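> example.struct
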């Protein structure tokens, strides 16, 4: 038997036992060591905080097994597995559970030098990478990141690694601003965006060419458009549950703005998931990304209800919320 965290209904969470999945020839069995909560996505799903008819509404059916980032050890290999061996540490896109069976092609070896508590950020890093890629961030770019939650923090770090000249993060919470500084932000602003436009322009040396909205807050969208430079790009990276509340403004037409959506699923032939994950591991190994302080809480799986309550009610105190499967 294995254990899994499950949402059995709106605001209902439990830890259940499941039968072991049979191993197919091309798959491996993974014993999970730790998994990272995606606090934004998972609290939206648990609280069913989205409008009817949205893609969220079509996706979320209970029972719902949350999570999509685990680190674990290969404990068994199918007969056709070619590269992975027993004892190898891997990353996989799987839910919060003590054991998983996954195709070898969807498992990524984690370098031995990496701390698994940092490596477990691989999935959120991939999501943030899509925003940085969509915005075409590169050497000398002026970038604004709106929101200092997990996705915003990772987007900031990837912009720095990509060679952006100015990377400014706007958020109201001091703890998030401190993490942004540690991650390489050239400036941070602790005000609502609509009250920070003049300060932002000074910090960027002009209006930002690229604005990455990581908040998932529909009301931020209008100010995000206003904050961008003429002919600039606004990347919608935070996935709101109420897209009908995101309103266009005259800035789009009069100033020739580009609006582009970014999503976890936007891989292509060049940027596959494997390439993005391995790039993240490489950047960690070379010290190009600073993850110090990014994990704020560690829970045993049996504390799942407490963990989700914290993520929902004390969002200001959380960043990386990790389930340690070696505890239970």
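> example.seq
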């Amino acid at each position: 038997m294995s254990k899994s965290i499950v949402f059995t209904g709106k605001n209902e969470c439990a830890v259940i036992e499941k039968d072991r999945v049979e191993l197919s020839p091309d798959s491996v069995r993974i014993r999970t060591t730790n998994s990272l909560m995606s606090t934004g996505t998972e609290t939206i799903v648990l609280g069913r905080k989205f409008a009817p008819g949205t893609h969220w509404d079509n996706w979320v059916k209970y029972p719902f097994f949350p999570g999509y980032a685990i680190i674990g050890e290969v404990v068994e290999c199918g007969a056709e597995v070619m590269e992975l061996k027993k004892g190898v540490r891997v990353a996989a896109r799987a839910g919060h559970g003590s054991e998983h069976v996954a195709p070898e092609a969807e498992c990524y070896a984690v370098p031995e030098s990496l701390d698994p508590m940092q490596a477990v950020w691989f999935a959120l890093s991939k999501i943030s990478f899509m925003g940085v890629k969509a915005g075409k961030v590169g050497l000398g770019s002026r970038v604004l990141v709106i929101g200092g939650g997990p996705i915003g923090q990772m987007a900031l770090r990837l912009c720095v690694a990509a060679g952006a000249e100015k990377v400014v993060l706007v958020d109201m919470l001091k703890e998030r601003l401190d993490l942004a500084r540690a991650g390489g932000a050239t400036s941070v602003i602790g005000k609502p965006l609509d009250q920070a436009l003049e300060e932002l322009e000074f910090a960027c040396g002009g209006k930002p060419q690229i604005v990455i909205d990581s908040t998932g807050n529909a009301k931020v969208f209008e100010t995000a458009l206003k904050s961008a430079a003429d002919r600039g790009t606004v990347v919608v990276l935070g996935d709101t549950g109420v897209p009908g509340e995101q309103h266009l403004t005259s800035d789009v037409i009069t100033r020739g703005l580009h609006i582009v959506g970014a999503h976890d699923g936007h891989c292509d032939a060049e940027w596959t998931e494997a390439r993005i994950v391995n790039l993240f591991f490489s950047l960690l190994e070379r010290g190009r990304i600073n993850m110090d302080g990014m994990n704020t809480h560690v829970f045993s799986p049996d504390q799942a209800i407490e963990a989700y309550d914290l993520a929902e009610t004390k969002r200001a105190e959380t960043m990386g919320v990790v389930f340690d499967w070696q505890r239970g």
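> remarks
The chain has two domains: 2-121+294-324, 124-261.
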